[in-house]
Design goal:
Strand content of chain A: 15-25%
Helix content of chain A: 40-55%
Largest sheet of chain A: 11 strands, mixed
Distance between the termini of chain A: 59 Å
CATH topology of the largest domain in chain A: Isopropylmalate Dehydrogenase
Number of strands of chain A: 11
Shape of chain A: globular
Radius of gyration of chain A: 21 Å
Order of helices and strands of chain A: EHEHHEHEHEEHEHEHEHHEEHH
Structural class of chain A: alpha/beta
Strand order of the largest sheet of chain A: 3-2-1-4-11-10-5-6-9-7-8
Oligomer: homodimer
Number of domains of chain A: 2
Number of helices of chain A: 12
Chain lengths: ~350, ~350
C-alpha cells in the first residue's frame, strides 16, 4: 500500500482548559476522519503516552502520530512573550518549531492565545508580502454560512493597506477552508455609503475596489449577523472589542434564558419539552463547528482554538489546518498580496 | 393652587415609525406620571389635534400641553442636514428651536437620528467647555443596572481628550438620570492592564486618572455585558459598530429562538408553556425601559429615541429629559469639563 500524501499538523496537546484528554479526543476524531492526516503530538511524553489508547489512538491511527517532547506549558499567568525566553521548551513554542523546521505544515493550539500568536509570528515567521499577520474569527451565523471577521486581536493602529491585506487573506480563507464560493468582502464601517467611515477605512476601500474579488464596500456592525457579507475586515482593536462583546452577549442571553426557564414550574416543564429544540439552536451558534481562529499571513498554517475547546472543536481546528495546507492558502495569499502591491503602484504612477 | 415648577419638553410628535398616535400615547403616559411636566407637542396641528382626546390627552393633562406648528417631517430618505435648509419647518428642527429659544428645557424625538443630532448640535448648540457632543447608548443589562456606552455615533477620529470628556458626561448622566450611585467608569480597550490599548485610549486613561470619579481603567468588549462597569467611553466609530452588531445579534438570537420553537410539535407545546417566562426575559433586554439615546454636551437636553418606540418608550424618553433638566446635568457637565481642563493644564505645567 502506497503512503498517501500526508498532511502533517503539530498539535499542542498540553494547551486548553480541559487538559490533554480533550485534545487527544480531538486528535482521535481527526485521525479517524482524515486518512491523509499525520499528527505530531507535542507535549510531555509522560502525560501523553498513557492517555493514547484510552482516547482511541491505537493501531492504524497511532501509526500516523509521533510524540514530540516539550517539557513545559505556557499557562494563563504567563506573558505571551514567555515563549521567547523562559519557555522555549513549551509545547506552543515546540509546535511552532515543528512548522519552522518543515516537519509540519501547520500547528494547532488551544493554549494561551497571545503566546500562540507570538510563536506563529516570531518562530514560524511572516509570509513574504504580508505586512502584518492577522487573527481571524469565524462568527457562526444564524443563517447558515459563517462570517469571517479579521483582524480580531493582533494589530492595533492599522493602516489602510493593512486592512486591505486582511480582507484579501480572509477572502482566501473563506473560499479555500470554509468552502464559501466567491465570498462577499466588506470593510467594517459606520454606514453603507462609500463616503462613510474614517479616513483609514475610506482609503482601505480604495485599495480593494480594483482587486479581483466580490467586493461589497462598507459593512456595518449589523452585517456581522444579519446580512450577506462573508468576510469583514477591520482594525484589530475594533475587531477584538466586537468579538469579545459578541461572545459575552450571546452567552449572557443563553444563560439568562436557561435561568429564566428554571425560575418557575411552567418554565421548567416547558423547558423540558423544548430542550432538544433549544440544543439544536445552540449548536448553530457554536464556534466549535469551525474549530478556531486562524492566524493568517504566517509561513505555515496556524489555528488557535478556544481554551474551552471540546474534542469536536479540536478536531475541527485540525481539519481547518489540513484544508489550509491542502488548498495551499499561503500560495494564494501571496498571489493576492502581489496583485495588491501592483495595483497600488499603478495607482501611484497615474 | 400654585403652579408647580414645570419642566417643559418639546416632543417631536411626527417622528417615529408608528406615527403620531404612538408618540401621543407616550405623551399621555408621561403627563399622567409626571405632574410637573409641560409638553410642547411639535408637529402638524391638523394631525395632532384630532388625536389628542383619543390618546387620553384631555382635561388637566391637556392643560399642560401646547401644540407648536411644524409643517414638514424629516423622512428616512432625507439627509441629516436637511434640517439646515430645505426642512427648516420640520418638526425636528422646530423642536430644537423651542429649546434654543428657551421655551423648552429639552427635546425628545423618535425621528431621523442623524437629523435630530444635527438639529441638537447646530440649532441648540454645543455646551461651552465641551469639544464634541456625543450620543450615549443605554445598554440594558441582564444583571439589572444598565451600562452607558458613549460615543455611539457622532464622532469618528476622536482624540484622547474627547474620550475623556465622553466618560465624564456619561458619569453625570448615569448618576443624575439613571440613578446609579457612584458609577464605575471605563475606557473601551483590548485588555485590562493599563498598558493595553491604542495610543489614544492610553492617553485617555491619563486624562481620567486624577478626576474625581470612580475610575476602573480599561474596560473590554465583554464588560459591556457581563461585568461591573456602568459607563464605558470610546471613539464614535467603534461605539457605533458595537451598538449595531449587538442589536443585530440579540435580535438574531431571539428571533432564531422563536422560529426554532415553532419548528416542531414539542417545541410549539413547550413554547406555549414558556411564553410568559420568555416575555419576562425579553423585557430585561428591552431598550424601551430607558427611552432613548441622550445626546450629551448640548445647551439643553436632547433625547433621541428609536424609530420603533412604543408609547412606553416615548414616555421613558420624556422622563429621561425631565430628570436631566431637574437634576441640572448640563451644569454638572460643565463643572466636570472645567476640572478636566484644569487638571490637564496643571499636568502640562509640571
Amino acid at each position: 500500500m502506497e503512503a498517501p500524501p500526508y498532511y502533517r499538523i503539530a498539535l499542542d496537546v498540553m494547551g486548553g482548559d480541559h487538559g490533554p484528554g480533550a485534545t487527544l479526543d480531538g486528535a482521535a476524531l481527526a485521525l479517524s476522519a482524515m486518512p491523509d492526516l499525520y499528527l505530531l503530538l507535542v507535549g510531555d511524553r509522560a502525560k501523553i503516552e498513557p492517555r493514547l489508547a484510552r482516547c482511541g489512538i491505537q493501531g492504524e491511527l497511532l501509526a500516523r502520530t509521533k510524540i514530540v517532547q516539550a517539557a513545559s506549558v505556557v499557562t494563563m499567568d504567563d506573558k505571551a512573550t514567555a515563549i521567547i525566553k523562559e519557555k522555549r521548551d513549551s509545547s506552543i513554542r515546540v509546535a511552532a518549531e515543528c512548522v519552522r523546521g518543515g516537519d509540519a505544515h501547520g500547528m494547532v493550539s488551544m493554549g494561551h492565545t497571545g503566546a500562540a500568536m507570538v510563536a506563529s509570528m516570531k518562530v514560524i515567521g511572516t509570509l513574504p508580502g504580508v505586512d502584518r499577520p492577522c487573527l481571524a474569527a469565524i462568527f457562526p451565523s444564524l443563517r447558515g454560512t459563517p462570517t469571517v471577521l479579521l483582524d480580531v486581536g493582533a494589530n492595533v493602529n492599522c493602516k489602510p493597506e493593512h486592512i486591505a491585506q486582511f480582507a484579501l487573506m480572509g477572502d482566501v480563507y473563506a473560499e479555500e477552508v470554509l468552502g464559501v464560493k466567491n465570498p462577499k468582502i466588506g470593510v467594517l464601517s459606520v454606514g453603507e455609503e462609500d463616503g462613510k467611515g474614517s479616513k483609514i477605512t475610506r482609503q482601505a476601500l480604495d485599495f480593494l475596489r480594483n482587486q479581483d474579488i466580490h467586493f461589497g464596500g462598507n459593512a456595518e456592525g449589523r452585517d456581522l449577523w444579519d446580512r450577506d457579507f462573508d468576510v469583514i475586515a477591520c482594525d484589530g482593536f475594533i475587531g477584538n472589542v466586537v468579538l469579545k462583546s459578541s461572545e459575552a452577549l450571546a452567552e449572557g442571553i443563553l444563560h439568562g434564558l436557561k435561568d429564566t426557564l428554571k425560575s418557575n414550574f411552567l418554565g421548567r416543564l416547558g423547558g423540558l419539552l423544548v430542550r432538544s429544540t433549544l440544543r439544536k439552536f445552540y449548536k448553530k451558534l457554536d464556534y466549535a463547528e469551525y474549530g478556531g481562529a486562524p492566524l493568517l499571513g504566517v509561513k505555515g498554517i496556524s489555528i488557535i482554538g478556544h481554551g474551552r475547546s471540546t474534542g469536536r472543536a479540536v478536531s475541527a481546528a485540525i481539519r481547518a489546518a489540513v484544508r489550509g495546507a491542502k488548498n495551499n492558502i499561503n500560495g494564494r495569499i501571496q498571489e493576492r498580496m502581489l496583485r495588491l502591491l501592483q495595483a497600488s503602484r499603478e495607482h501611484e504612477a497615474v
